[in-house]
Amino acid sequence: MEKTRDGFKSGTGFVIACIGSAVGMGNIWRFPYMVSDWGGMTFLIPYVLFVILIGSTGLIEEMALGRAAKGGPIKAFGKCTEVHTGKKKSGEIVGLLPVIGSLALAIGYTVVVGWIFKYAFLAISGQLSGMGKNMDVIGGMFGTTASAFGNNTWLVIAVIVTAVIMAFGIAAPLPYEAIGHGLLFVDIAIAMYDLDKFKRINDMYGHSAGDEALVAVSEAVRSRLCEDEILVRWGGEEFIVIMKQNERRFEEHAQEIREAVEQLQLETV
C-alpha cells in the first residue's frame, strides 16, 4: 500500500502555515532597523521586488514540486533525480539537507517560544512592568534567560505545548470535532474504510480523477451519517467514521456505508 500523509483540512490553515514558515524572526526584530539604516523607502523598493521575484519563482516551484511528488523534500528530490538519471539515491541525499536545516530551525524556534512563554508570564504577573526602565535589570533578566540552562522550565513547557498541538494533526482535529458532536464522553465505535486500487485510478486517469473519486466517496458516506456522526479523511484514500456505539448496531450501519460507496458510478473512471 502506498504511504499516505496528513494534509490540511482548509485553505486557511495552509496559508497560516505558509506565513509561519516564511516570516522568520528577522522580519520582526531585524527588518525595522534595516529599513532605518538603509534609507527607508529606498530599502523597501528592492526588498519588495525581491520578495515578489523569489515568491513567484522559488516558492511556487517548491510547492509545485511537493504537490507533484506528494512527499517531503527527500521523496521530492529523489523523484527528480529518478526521472533524469533513473536513480533516486542522490536526490534523496540532497533532500536530506533541507530536513536537517528545518530541524535546526525548529530547535532554535523552540528556545524562542520558551522565552515568549516566560515573558508572557512575567507580563501577566506584573514582574515585567516592575522592572520599569532600568536597563540593567532588563538586560540582566534577558541575559539570564538566554544563558545556558537559564530557561529550562519554560523550554520544557514549550516542547510539551508544541507536542500536544502537533499530536492533534493538521487535517482532522478530532478532540474539537468530538466536542461539537457530543462524542467526547460517550462510548463510540470507529469504522475505517480504505479505497482499493486507488493508486491505479491516479496512474491510469490522472490525479483529477482521483480527487473526483475522493469527493464522491466522502459525499456518499456523509449521505448515510447521522447528525452526531463524524467523517474524517485519515490518509490519502482512508476514511474514518466515528459514531455513538449505542445509537444503532455498529455492524449494520458500517455495512450500509460500505454499500453506498460500492454503488458509486464515476464518469471519468
- End-to-end separation in angstroms reads 20 Å
Based on CA atoms alone, the radius of gyration comes out at: 25 Å
Q: Can you list the strand order of the major beta sheet?
A: 1-3-2
**Number of H- or I-type helical stretches:** 12
Biggest sheet: strands, sense, closure?
A: 3 strands, antiparallel
**Average pLDDT:** 78
Helix content: 55-70%
How many strand elements?
A: 3
Structural class: mainly alpha
Inertia-based shape: extended
Question: What are the secondary-structure elements, in order, as H or E?
Answer: HHHHHHHHHEHHEEH
Point out poorly predicted stretches.
none
Strand-residue proportion: 5-15%
Describe the overall structure:
With 269 residues, the chain is mainly α. 67% of the residues lie in helices and 7% in strands. It contains 12 helices and 3 strands. The protein has helices spanning 11-22, 26-37, 41-69, 73-85, 89-125, 127-130, 135-146, 152-168, 174-180, 198-205, 207-222, 250-262; strands spanning 188-194, 230-233, 238-244. A 3-stranded antiparallel β-sheet has the order 1-3-2, with helices on both faces. Helix 3 (41-69) crosses helix 4 (73-85), helix 5 crosses helix 8 and helix 11 (207-222) packs antiparallel against helix 12 (250-262). The protein is extended, with a radius of gyration of 25 Å. The two termini are 20 Å apart. 9% of the residues are buried. The model has no long low-confidence stretch (mean pLDDT 78).
